[in-house]
Design brief:
disordered N terminus, 52% helix, 0% strand, mainly alpha
Length: 130
C-alpha cells in the first residue's frame, strides 16, 4: 500500500471515530426542566437572538451580515439532525468556517440550559415563541 493511501485511511478512521473526548455527561434532568429551559431562553435572548431571531427561527437582525444562514431552531428537521452533545459543543466551540461564534464564557450549567431551550424550540407551534 502506498503512503498516500495509508494516510487517507488514517484520516478517514480518525474522522469516523471522532477521537475528541466529550467528557461532558448529558444532564437529562436539566434538558427536561421547564425552569432550565426558561433560563436558557433568557440566555438565548441575551446572547443569540441578534443572529437567530427572538423566535429562534434564524431571522435575527444581523442575519444579513452572517457568512451563511443562522440555524432555524423551530425547524423539526434541525432537531432531528442534532443531539444534546452536539448542541453543547457548538455553543462552546462555535462552528469553524461559519459565523457561529464560540461561547466558552458560559458555565456548563448555563450552556446546558441554553441547549435545553434550543432543543425544545421545535416542540412549539411554528411562529409562536416558546
Amino acid at each position: 500500500m502506498n503512503r498516500a493511501l495509508a494516510w487517507v485511511l488514517v484520516l478517514v478512521t480518525l474522522w469516523a471515530c471522532d477521537a475528541r473526548p466529550s467528557g461532558v455527561a448529558v444532564p437529562d434532568a436539566v434538558l427536561e426542566s421547564a425552569a432550565a429551559r426558561a433560563r436558557g431562553r433568557t440566555a438565548f435572548l441575551e446572547n443569540c437572538a441578534l443572529c437567530h431571531g427572538e423566535r429562534a427561527d434564524g431571522h435575527g437582525p444581523r442575519r444579513s451580515a452572517l457568512s451563511g444562514p443562522a440555524a432555524d431552531f423551530t425547524n423539526p428537521n434541525w432537531r432531528r439532525g442534532t443531539s444534546p452533545e452536539a448542541v453543547f459543543e457548538t455553543i462552546r466551540e462555535g462552528l469553524r468556517g461559519t459565523s457561529m461564534a464560540a461561547w466558552p464564557t458560559l458555565s456548563d450549567q448555563q450552556t446546558w440550559e441554553l441547549a435545553a431551550y434550543l432543543l425544545s424550540v421545535s416542540e412549539a407551534p411554528r411562529g409562536v415563541a416558546p
